[in-house]
Design a protein that fits this description.
Helix content: 40-55%
Radius of gyration: 17 Å
Strand order of the largest sheet: 1-2-3-4-5-6-7-8
Strand content: 15-25%
Shape: globular
Number of strands: 8
Largest sheet: 8 strands, parallel
Number of helices: 9
Bound molecules: zinc ion
Length: 259
Amino acid sequence: MIDSHCHLADEAFAADLSEVVARAQAAGVQGALCILSADEPEEVARAGQVRDAWPAVRFAAAIHPHRTGAYAGRAEHAARLTRDTAVSTTAVAIGEIGLDYHYDFSPRDVQRAVFVAQIGVALELDRPVVIHTREATDDTFAVLREAGGNRVRGVMHCFSGTVDEARAALDLGFYISLAGILTFPKAESLREVARFVPLDRVLVETDAPFLAPVPHRGKRNEPAWVVETARRLADVRGLPFDPIAAQILQNYHVLFGSS
Ligand SMILES: [Zn+2]
Ligand SMILES: [Zn+2]
């Protein structure tokens, strides 16, 4: 099993990182993709501690859509920060990038400009992208098509859209990553998506420290609990856990590389 999206360098884990890693390993989680906020030097510095605590961790780096407001008229500066952080942390992906029209913490035109500029970094470095999109599906796909053409590849992280939106993402060649929301009682439409996505295009993630799955809901999330989401995916598909877990691990390595 693998956690394809978590924030282990977040200060929420600074005090007990080694225990968190030990619990993940005990749960059979072999590694994780740790998302770094490229313009938060303290978090980027903690990447070293994460790597020491869990050598199997790989990194992604970028400027989150929530933080793009600081780069109005300076999208190229944002892209340079992302590029430098990705290189210095040997990141295997650029992310998370995208558009968030739910919170609208940053003006939408600035979000789009910084998104486009960071897709440029992914293409230049030949890395997949980790996409965050919330209530912005049409614009997200439009930007991906315009800025990336058919050259951009990646994953829709914490997917929360419809089956039609999942189909559009798959048509672009993207993977669909399911988070702990899959285990929530009201998430029947997401379970429909989980039944629909081809098994060779699905990933699971925690987005820890956020979004803990049932039965841990409301607590600080951690990579060990990705197993709950994978178990729910297996249930929904009517398949045993082990082959699903093996397939997810393989998908992760196909997308992010096996180094
Ligand atoms: Zn996100
Ligand atoms: Zn995240």
